[in-house]
C-alpha cells in the first residue's frame, strides 16, 4: 500500500487546537479519565466541588464581611462574594491543572502520538464540570434573594464564562509547555493563582480601586478576569438588589460596550501566543519527559 507524499505529515507537526476538535472523542475520554482518577478512593467524590468553594466562601465572608465589616457597605455581600469566587475558582483550577497536564501524562505522551493540546484543554473541561454545580448553588441563592436578571445579563454571563475559558486555555498551553522544560513554571503559576483573587473585584467593590487609582483605573480594567468578575456581579448580584441599594459598586461604565470586547481581544492574543509556543515546543515533549 502506498501513501501519497502530500498526505504525509511531519511527526509532531499538527494543526494545534483544530486537531483537538477533530479528535473530540479522545477529548471526551480524557475528561472522563481525569474525573475518575481525581476522585478515585474519595468518599465525597464530586461533592468536593461544593465543599471547597463553600469553605473558601465562609473564610472570606467571616474575615472580610464580618470582621472587617465589608458587608455593611455592600448589600447582599454573600452573593456578591460567591459570584466572584465561583468564576475565579474555575480559572485557577483550569490554569493550575493545565500547567501540570503534560508532565502528569508523561507516560502516555512517551508511548503514543496524539495531539498534545488535548491534555491542557481536557483540564479546562474538567474544571467546567466542577464549575457547573457551584453555578447551580449560586443561582439558587440568587433566586431566594429575588433574582430578576435580563436576557442581556444572562447572555453577558455566558460570554464572561467563555472569556475566562479562552484565557485559561491560552495560559494553560503556554505554561504547560514551559513546565516540560522548566519545572519552575509551576511555582510561577502558583504565585499567579495566589494573587488572582485579589487582582479582581471578588472580595471588594470596583469603586474602591477606581477611587484609589484615579486616572490609572483603566490599567486595572485591562485584566480580563476583572471584566469577567464584574459581569458576573452585574448578572447575579445586582438583580438581587432593591432600587435603593444600587449604590456602591454598581456596573462600571462601558463594561459591555468597551471592556468586554477589549478583554476578548486580549484573551484571544494570549490564546494565539500560547498555542504558538506550545506547538513549537511540543515536538520535543517525548524526549524531554
TrEMBL record:
What keyword terms does UniProt attach to this protein?
A: Antibiotic resistance, Cell inner membrane, Cell membrane, Membrane, Transmembrane, Transmembrane helix, Transport
Q: Give the stretches traversing the membrane.
A: 54-70, 77-98, 118-144, 156-182, 188-206, 256-278
Q: Where is the ABC transmembrane type-2 domain?
A: 44-281
Membrane topology value: Multi-pass membrane protein
Cellular localization per UniProt? Cell inner membrane; Cell membrane
| Broad class of the protein's primary localization | membrane
Does the record bear Flavoprotein in its keywords? no
Keyword flag S-adenosyl-L-methionine: no
User: Which family, according to the similarity comment?
Assistant: Belongs to the ABC-2 integral membrane protein family.
Xref: PANTHER family: INNER MEMBRANE TRANSPORT PERMEASE, TRANSPORT PERMEASE PROTEIN
> What is the protein's name according to its record?
Transport permease protein
